[in-house]
Amino acid sequence: MTNDTRNQLVELSQNLGRPENDYVILGEGNTSAKIDDRTFWVKASGTHLGSITAAGFVQVYFEPVLEMLNGPDLSDSQIKAALAAAKVDPAAPGHPSVETAFHAACLQLPDVNFVGHTHPTTVNMLTCSVAFETAVQGRLFPDEIVICGIAPLLIPYADPGLPLAREIQRRLLEYVDTYGERPKVALMQNHGLAVLAPTARQVENITAMAVKTARILRGTFDFGGPHFMSAENVARIYTRPDEHYRQNVIGRGQKND
Question: What is the pTM of this model?
Answer without folding.
Answer: 0.93
